[in-house]
Specification:
11% strand; Aldolase_TIM; TIM Barrel; alpha/beta; OxRdtase_FMN_N
């Protein structure tokens, strides 16, 4: 993951960079609490490939440390998502403007990672049309159709799509993607949380696997709860990003009545 403009000098010690000098709306986490996201420095064209390579370098470290593979975070308004955006990315060089320009960074980042650790160890997460952190996109079906077409020859382990756009658009992307597809079946941070019904719905629409986020935070035994139809415990948002054990390893497994 590369946060790019969704960062702060109080956290990193340096001014964030971005595709363009456009600040993300809202506040970002810092050691002293939330603060407005600063205006990033726009990357020079010659700098962009180095940031694409940073994903590959991180992947090598992860595999060397014993991980089976890596997922590039191309979703939710972070760096790859910012380049895909038509509001965060106002560039007029080869990395902006047209659909081909806006997908270029994502393709380069994934290609570099595949060369470094292999396609079978590489996935990417995407959030079509989400608009998180102000990274809004135009021409969503065409944009993501073009991106998946460029990624298909790389033989990735999977594509991971969030349910952030119209269902019919996601179904068409399922049809367009020749490999394994993971779907996060509800809007991230939305009012509905992923459950068995949502999972079954997307399995019926062609997803190969379903991802769970908040449900796994609060349920160390989530798989067993889904298997047995047991209630899924809610997560405690107040413990997120805080550090420490609370909300990290303090959620109990389901307790059956005696």
């Amino acid at each position: 993951m590369h946060g790019c403009r969704v960062s702060h000098p109080d956290t990193t010690g340096m001014r964030p960079v971005g595709p363009s000098a456009v600040a993300a709306p809202g506040e970002v986490f810092t050691p002293s609490g939330p603060k407005p996201a600063p205006v990033p420095r726009a990357l020079e064209t010659a700098e962009v490939p180095e940031h694409a390579l940073s994903y590959a370098r991180a992947a090598v470290r992860a595999v060397d440390a014993g991980f089976d593979g890596v997922e590039l975070h191309g979703a939710n308004g972070y760096l790859i998502s910012q380049f895909l955006s038509s509001t965060a990315n106002l560039r007029t060089d080869a990395y902006g403007g047209s659909i081909a320009g806006r997908i270029r960074f994502a393709v380069e980042a994934v290609t570099a990672t595949v060369k470094a650790v292999g396609g079978d160890r590489t996935g990417i997460r995407l959030s079509p049309g989400a608009g998180f952190w102000g990274a809004e996109e135009s021409d969503v079906p065409e944009l993501y159709g073009a991106l998946l077409a460029e990624l298909a020859p790389l033989d990735l382990a999977y594509i991971h799509l969030e349910a952030t756009t119209d269902e019919d658009v996601l179904v068409e992307l399922r049809k367009a993607w020749p490999g394994t597809l993971i779907v996060n079946p509800v809007l991230p941070m939305g009012p509905r949380k992923a459950d068995k019904a949502a999972a079954d719905h997307w399995l019926g629409l062609g997803a190969d696997l379903i991802s769970f986020g908040r449900a796994f935070i609060a349920n160390p035994d989530l798989v067993e709860r889904l298997r047995q139809g047991l209630p899924v415990a809610p997560d405690d948002v107040s413990t997120w990003y805080q550090g420490g054990d609370a909300g990290y390893l303090t959620y109990p497994a389901y307790r059956h009545a005696a």
